[in-house]
Amino acid sequence: MSAAITIDDGDRETIPPPAVPQKADLTAWLGVAAGAIGSLMATLDISIVNSSLPTIQGEIGASASEGTWIATSYLVAEIIIIPLTGWLERVFGLRRFLLMAAILFTAFSIACGLSTSLTMMILGRVGQGFTGGAMIPTALTIIAMRLPPSQQPIGTALFGATVIMGPVMGPLIGGWLTENFSWHYAFFVNVPIGILLVILLLVGIPKGKMKLDELVNADWLGVVGMVLGLGALTVVLEEGHREQWFESTVIWQLTGVSLLGFIMIGVGQVYAKRPVVKLALLRNRAFAAVFGLSLILGGVMFGTAYVIPQFLASVADYNAMQAGRIVFLSGVPALMMMPFFPLLVSRVDLRLIVGTGMVFLALSCYLDVTLTAQSRGGDFVVTQLLRGLGQVFCMMFLNQAAISSVAPEDAGDGAGLFNAGRNLGGSIGLALLATLQDERWEFHRWTIHSTLFSNDIRMQDWLGQQVMTYGGGPDGLAATIRSLDAMVMRDALVMAFNDDFMALTIVILIVSPLVLFLRPLPKGYHAKAAH
Questions:
Q1: Which has more confidence, 22 or 292?
Q2: Which of 48, 50, 403, 467 could form a disulfide with 174 if both were Cys (CB 3.0 to 4.6 A apart)?
Q3: In the chain, how long is the greatest CA-to-CA distance?
Q4: How far are the Cα atoms of 258, 321, 421 from residue 252, in angstroms, in the given order?
Q5: pLDDT (tens digit per residue) in 19-59
Q6: What is the spatial distance between Cα 322 and Cα 188, in angstroms, rounded to a whole number?
Q7: Cβ atoms within 10 Å of 119's Cβ, excluding its own
Q8: Sign of torsion, CA 495 499 501 506?
């Protein structure tokens, strides 16, 4: 295997073997550490607010449904920026681009921590998403540039650990900071990490030249189209339920904007010298299967990381720290399995591993459809461990499938689409799960009420006991009715959460056959990074 690495930057430039020694030196590993820290910080902040959402919503005056935007806006911005990172790297140079991203990410984190309104928070989260998303795929670029082929599996495993651990560590760290200090520190914690990241980037990444001519030749139709198409689509998904879907003029307008954006992307695919996103890769059956599976994986990862803390807070009365501990359990299998990744990827059929992961994900969601009003964190232990095992099997090996199913010169585009697909699935999943939960909560509430009859002897006996408990008279009757409605709403909410998990189970099972279209890795294949 040649030690030469080819960087696709529009014009092919081959770096001779001496540029990448057989063993990386300290500065190279510092560069890899910078990439890992950057991607960890970016993925961590996807979910760091999840367990703190009830507290944040209360302090900035946002409703529960509006609060989902605090998580969704970050994901939308990440989805838009991830496919653009290859182009931005070429324009500014890798080190300069990452330094700008790290400094701006830290600044936007401070803005989020100082937010006093929902608008200010969402603007800060969008800024975090744009700058943080840039640090996810570039971590793989650093691995490919700074490590020799023999050491790239270590770097790839390290990257995989950050991508998986970030979303599950987020609720735990956010919860601990919220309980022991305040929710503001869930954002301020990025300040010292950002300073460390800047130092590592300065030491570990060599200087590069800017290529501002790339701005002139860029696929601007594709760039603008992605912003309009993906941004408007997510707003439609998020606001559709509250706006009564297509009964709303706003939803129709946003749908038109989204459609226009996707048309612009399509035109760019045909006429641009180098499309900003190479969607032609989706014509490859194996890669299309990877992309479809990545959508579902993102929906499950980010969806459950949002739903479980919400259930524990609203039904089990858990604080942010307690909920974060339960979410973190899904990261334990990732830590345990990561050392075995280089061995498994070269010896076990890719389709078998990913298929097993999908089975674990479906089973973990199915086991959670039996939640009751008495369920507590302990009821999620087994399912969270199963879910974590499924995530590590799918995430690590689908990343390799994305790279190996396309030509070497398209590996960077394949990895970018895979990461964008995961985040797009997470954004869609969050929006749809929140909408489903609202609709089913209302449905179950009135269904339960319709089964309560005033002439039922047992109901009359219970009402009588409750009225006496509250002191009798009109005030006691009113208190009893409020108590009854609260019980109904709680049970209806639990049933709505169960519907969320059942929907996830069904979708996973429907998409799982795509595993059969994955392309097996070549014999003797070694894990590698996209470059």
A1: 292
A2: 48
A3: 90
A4: 10, 41, 25
A5: 445 677 788 888 888 888 888 888 888 778 766 777 787 77
A6: 21
A7: 11
A8: positive
